[in-house]
Amino acid sequence: MSGIGYQTVETTTYDGQKPGTSGLRKKVKVFQQKHYLENFVQSTFNALPADDLKGSTLVVSGDGRYFSDTAIPVICRMAAANGVGKIWIGCGGLLSTPAVSAVIRNRHGGEAYGGFILTASHNPGGPEEDFGVKYNTENGGPALEKLTNAIHAGTQKIKQYYIANDDLTVNYSTTGTTQYLVQTRGSSKFRPFTIQVIDPVEDYLKLLRTIFDFDALKALMHKPDFTFTFDAMHGVSGPYARRIFVQEMGADPSSLQNCDPKPDFGGIHPDPNLTYAHDLVNRMGLGDHIPSTIPDFGAACDGDADRNMILGSKFFVTPSDSVAIIAAHAQEAIPYFKSGLSGVARSMPTSAALDSVARAKGLSCYETPTGWKFFGNLMDAGKCALCGEESFGTGSDHVREKDGLWAVLAWMSIIAYRNNCMNQGASGLIGKLQQTVLGQPKQQVPMQLVTVEDIVKEHWAKYGRNYYTRYDYEGVDSDKADAVMQHLISKQGEVSQVRSFVIDTADEFTYKDPVDGSVAEHQGVRFLGRDGSRIMFRLSGTGSSGATIRMYIEKYVSAEGASQADLTQDTAPALQKLVDVALTLSDMHKLTGREKPTVIT
Hints:
- This protein is an alpha/beta fold.
- The protein is 33% helix and 24% strand.
- It has an 8-stranded mixed β-sheet, with helices on both faces. Strands 23-24-27-28-29-22-30 form a 7-stranded antiparallel β-sheet.
- Helix 2 packs across helix 4 (68-81), helix 11 (319-333) runs parallel beside helix 12 (353-361) and helix 11 crosses helix 14.
- The protein is globular, with a radius of gyration of 25 Å.
- Residues 425-446 have low confidence and may be disordered.
């Protein structure tokens, strides 16, 4: 085996390579600039301790979006030149974001030192759309601010990067192992370097088996009165859905939609919400035309499978309600939590529905800034077992990323539990259905299916309802977005009441981490009402261009003394007065020129 040398390539800096809440996201054309990707990757290697990096194992994979086929070989060759010993790549370059976390944490006993995830998550893909790179550390979670700040600082002064010669070819179309001898920066010696292409589903599925009762889930799938559909939005969750729902649980393949991963997501904006998940929304009876048959349960995941949307027949479950309902049922319905929850957490903009469950169950509930890395610290310290964000992200301490398919299986587990499928198994259920008397099918009194809508409404009746909505103003000029936020800050202490909304507290959210004492400031502007209502604003860090202003509105109705009508109003009219207050406070229309939001959820 002949050795492969490396090159030292001179480069110049680029502005704006500061990672956001989930890595560096830009338009593909930005990443295609000369040395742009290499600068960021080398700055990441430079920010990591050289002794830890030497001989280490890294994961390099993503959601398969456009430009991944260019980025994966480049990162692998740079890893070789920077002393990394082994790379794991999902076959086809595919690994969901939660699966990357699972591989880092669990494969070969947690051998991996970290990983590069190539995704822009729920953002569109294609030559004119978005690409992203983020680095996850050895706990499987996104890099914390100390590391991302060091990476950004490196991008501002980088002068050269190191990359193995192009005779180090990277083929990840089939599983297998390829070994090389490579020269590393600062050394004349050659050393072993390995690229191993792995099954993208295997490690993740192995982990899920330790969390959920797969026999109960199979039994649910075989119930004659339960119907199911899943939409992968042409993202990376497609291969996982086929393996889990069809091969493992026996679902009809026709119940899956858009499950072939595509570099441009088939032209779909792969964000699982009521605006962009058109196919699923229509199939579940929430579109303009109601189909003749509607599944009982529907779900979707985004491009990299870390976000989810849960629907019942003609019924939408808000992400804030979703995490609260999972927490309320976790101990009984999900074997992983049979000993109870160590604690729960939510991001600041997420509704306080989870808080009500925590109080009732005597659990600690943490309010963090937006960004999964803040949950990771709590999980590593054993303070949090389950958490969620209003931006369609839900997960637990099984990995250090939000996990869309985990949330789907959690909801299916709750439905299975409420419909007596637990500890029964698919074969037992089918056997009962096939019992006969004197050669004729035994008549059985059918039990009406406990539906998604039933479960949510029972939850409201017990814990109260947090009416909640989010207005997204996407692609706003950055100067205009900053003007909105500065205007809101100026209103703090100046305005005590807008119409009937009496302001009890107005501030910028600041978070002090209970684990390491670190402080995160300027995490959103809040106006907290005396009646428990909340109006919040923040700039999102997940876009690739311009700025996204998010406006959050929440109104709580206690279950005590509330009528059914009080708890089951349509969200829009229930919140309209608060929405009007928020638009007045922010002067949104005047400062942005926007007459209406891009997306309402």
